[in-house]
From TrEMBL:
Lineage: Bacteria, Bacillati, Actinomycetota, Actinomycetes, Pseudonocardiales
Keyword tags: Cell membrane, Membrane, Phosphate transport, Transmembrane, Transmembrane helix, Transport
Species this chain originates from: Actinophytocola xinjiangensis
Ranges that cross the membrane: 35-54, 93-113, 125-151, 157-174, 206-227, 280-302
Described function: Part of the binding-protein-dependent transport system for phosphate; probably responsible for the translocation of the substrate across the membrane.
Lipid bilayer topology: Multi-pass membrane protein
NCBIfam families: 3a0107s02c
GO annotation terms (biological process): phosphate ion transmembrane transport
Official protein name in the record: Phosphate transport system permease protein PstA
Source species, domain of life: Bacteria
Similarity comment: Belongs to the binding-protein-dependent transport system permease family. CysTW subfamily.
Stretches assigned to the ABC transmembrane type-1 domain: 87-298
Length: 312
């Protein structure tokens, strides 16, 4: 707060001085520019602080051994164990949640944008808005209750966690995709219709292709929204110390749950060793790296599928 007040005072001082030398319009422009850059700098402070803290505490434990071993047989303050099983669980559960949510969300957005407003469309928009504000724990309880009806109480499987995450992803995908599809110029649609192209083919070949970069970004935002969720996965997936590659059989570990579990265990039994905290920080760094890699892949995919505009 003190830094922000200092920036405002400095900006006001610049405005007063500029009005004397430059005139009113130039002074207001300088004030707006100063406030904009100041706000940008203030927004970077928590981000840089977060990255620096995670790197500072996470790099100590982050190595090849940590990435390639599980926690099976590790107990107490043993200087052993890794995060391999949590990486497998996170990737598989998130990938399957994406496989569920992206087709549903994208098709819903196409209907809302391309087939015009209707009573059904307004109802869908209302429920999407409601789903956007659903707490993650509620999505976890919903998925657990659904599978408990089919498999009985106490069910814990990776696919249950994927369904819970898909419930959280769908409204994000719908909203992001809807906004991207609205940005496609109507002239492109009309040109395709004038050539006799059916509407469904226009949507597939023209609309979706034009909005490909924005659609991929929207999907990545949805993935980033859920990949760090802990509460729904504690309910639906549970905890395990060994690797499980089967989404449809048994419990799985994920990186957020791994971080939560290690940090909640606190100091080792001898009261001195901080091995649990070290594992938690290293797992948090692993999760950040995975998200960064996903965004890099998304940028490459969007660049490949986006329309090519050649220069003459």
């Amino acid at each position: 707060m003190t830094v922000f007040l200092g920036v405002v005072v400095h900006a006001v001082a610049l405005l007063v001085a500029s009005r004397v030398v430059e005139g009113g319009r130039a002074a207001r422009d300088r004030l707006a520019t100063t406030l904009m850059y100041s706000a940008f700098g203030l927004a970077l402070i928590p981000l840089i602080s977060l990255l620096w803290t995670v790197l500072q505490y996470g790099l100590e434990r982050f190595d090849g051994y940590f990435l390639s071993y599980t926690m099976r047989g590790v107990y107490g303050g043993m200087d052993a164990g890794g995060v391999y099983h949590a990486i497998i669980g996170t990737v598989e559960i998130t990938a399957f949640a994406t496989l569920i949510s992206v087709p549903v969300g994208l098709l819903t957005a196409v209907y809302l944008v391309e087939y015009g407003p209707s009573r059904l469309g307004r109802a869908i928009t209302f429920f999407v808005d409601v789903m956007t504000g659903i707490p993650s724990i509620v999505a976890g309880l919903f998925a657990y209750a659904l599978f408990a009806l089919l498999f009985g109480p106490g069910v814990r499987m990776g696919v249950v966690g994927s369904v819970a995450l898909a419930v959280l992803m769908i409204p994000v995908v719908v909203r992001a995709s809807e906004e991207m599809l609205k940005l496609v110029p109507n002239e492109l649609r009309e040109a395709a219709y004038a050539l006799g192209v059916p509407k469904w083919l226009t949507i597939v070949k023209v609309v979706l292709r034009t909005a490909a970069a924005g659609l991929v970004t929207g999907v990545m935002l949805a993935i980033a929204r859920v990949i760090g969720e802990t509460a729904p996965l504690l309910i639906t997936v549970g905890v395990v110390d060994s690797a499980n590659f089967n989404l449809f059989d048994g419990r799985m570990m994920t990186l957020p749950v791994y971080v939560f579990r290690q940090y909640s265990q606190g100091l080792a039994p001898n009261g001195v060793t901080t091995i649990n905290y070290d594992r938690a920080w290293a797992a948090a760094l692993t999760l950040i790296i995975i998200v960064m890699l996903l965004f890099l892949v998304a940028r490459l995919v969007s660049r490949f599928f986006s329309p090519k505009t050649g220069r003459r």
